[in-house]
Design a protein that fits this description.
The chain is of the alpha/beta class. The protein has 2 domains: 37-235, Rossmann fold (3-Layer(aba) Sandwich), CATH 3.40.50.410; 246-386, OmpA-like domain (60s Ribosomal Protein L30, Chain: A), CATH 3.30.1330.60. Helix content is 36%, strand content 18%. It is built from 11 helices and 14 strands. A 6-stranded mixed sheet has the order 6-5-2-7-8-9, sandwiched between helices. A 4-stranded mixed sheet has the order 11-14-12-13. Helix 5 links the parallel strand 7 and strand 8. Helix 2 (66-80) runs antiparallel to helix 3 (115-123). It is elongated and about 75 Å long.
Length: 387
């Protein structure tokens, strides 16, 4: 009996340790890059990040703790925003008792935005604990923004939306009433709570001019860049191009793009190229989320067939690309299906299939930011690489 008991205890101990090891959480990361200040003006005069440091943020969401996901998002936002003279702040709500007895703390600001100093503020939020008094953080934000210059204020809320005190929506309405159309709310859900999502969506709706997001949408370079561009930035209008000095520039492939600006030299005669000299079939080929070629695109493809027939020694690589709506795996497959659809059309017009190769890149190689309809449309394309 003793031997049996020992054996059972050994088995149970092994299973317990194995279970704990298999649930070990990891620290998430985002590959971010500061957007070029030369290309933008600031859409907001003042912004503040409200960070949920309550006890529910210690729980797991996937392979990471929600608290760690929230800090990664805060660092990612900070590392992407260009310094354009904005005023910024960071306020947390809820805390581990040994971190602070205060229910909400302004860890940074309000002051002229500095990437380095906001990073230091995020560093100070080291533990989660207690309940979620986001209502008090919203009330304090009304004072944080008081007296600041400018008429555009953004409030970013990073939270799981759980264990909130009563009066959250009342506080959001009071803040909106005080600043009117000059303030917008941008809640970001960490985790997958339906109740949390519903609450944060209501806060966004009260703001009227902001929008609700999820952490999953921002945990990539493209997703974070889109968010930062839509919340914080306006694109500068393109400056008028300088008149080219014809004698000093060459266009070796006669595609209308000078050699110094041509990223795809050697395009065949008759090919329609974009601003950087690449042979591209743009978004007129397909409807959103479809790989069936639209009839209005047939003349474009017929021109490709004509060029291939005029150059019988030329082969063609068809590279499919997508915007960032949907999962990476789905878009990788969709981009390949689109490239294959173009190949099949060309083959039916009499071009040997062995002259054509296809590859899908999903949304890994955007040519424009995905934060606007026009940017996403530019990213839905098939590029043609002759050889």
């Amino acid at each position: 009996m003793r031997l049996l008991t020992r054996s059972l205890l050994t088995i149970f101990t092994f299973l317990f340790l194995f279970g704990c090891a298999s649930q070990q959480l990891t620290i998430p990361s985002i590959d971010t890059k500061k957007l070029d200040a030369d290309n933008y003006t600031s859409k907001v005069d003042n912004f503040i990040i409200l960070f949920d440091a309550s006890s529910s943020m210690n729980h797991a969401a996937g392979q990471s703790a929600k608290f760690d996901i929230a800090k990664t998002l805060a660092y990612g936002i900070n590392s992407s925003i260009p310094e354009l003279g904005q005023t910024a702040g960071l306020r947390s709500f809820g805390h581990a008792p040994d971190l602070s007895k205060e229910k909400t703390i302004l860890f940074y600001g309000m002051e002229k935005y500095s990437t380095r100093n906001l990073d230091k503020g995020i560093d100070k939020i080291t533990k989660a604990g207690g309940y979620s008094p986001v209502n008090l953080a919203l009330d304090a934000t009304a004072d944080d923004l008081d007296g600041l210059s400018g008429d555009s204020n953004a409030v970013i809320i990073i939270s799981d939306g759980l264990d909130m005190e009563k009066g959250v929506l009342t506080s959001a309405r009071k803040l909106k009433a005080k600043y009117g159309s000059s303030i917008c709310f941008y809640p970001i859900l960490v985790g997958d709570s339906k109740d949390g999502a519903a609450l944060l969506q209501k806060i966004a709706d009260i703001g009227g001019c902001g929008f609700y997001s999820t952490a999953d949408e921002l945990m990539s370079y493209a997703g974070m860049a889109d968010f930062v561009e839509m919340v914080f930035l306006d694109e500068k209008p393109a400056s008028a191009p300088k008149a080219p000095v014809v004698s000093a520039k060459k266009d070796s492939d006669n595609d209308g793009v000078y050699d110094g600006d041509d990223k795809c030299p050697g395009t065949p005669a008759g090919a329609t190229v974009n601003a950087v000299g690449c042979w591209v079939l743009d978004n007129v080929l397909f409807d959103f989320d479809k790989s069936i070629i639209k009839s209005m695109a047939y003349p474009l493809l017929d021109d490709v067939v004509k060029i291939l027939k005029q150059n019988p020694a030329m082969n063609l690589q068809l590279n499919g690309h997508c915007d960032n709506v949907g999962t990476p795996a789905y878009n990788m497959d969709l981009s390949l299906r689109r490239a294959n659809a173009v190949r099949d059309y060309i083959v039916k017009k009499g071009i040997l299939w062995k002259r054509l190769d296809t590859q899908g890149f999903g949304f890994t190689q955007p040519v424009a930011l995905n934060g606007t309809d026009s940017g996403r449309a530019m990213n839905r394309r098939v590029e043609l690489d002759p050889s």
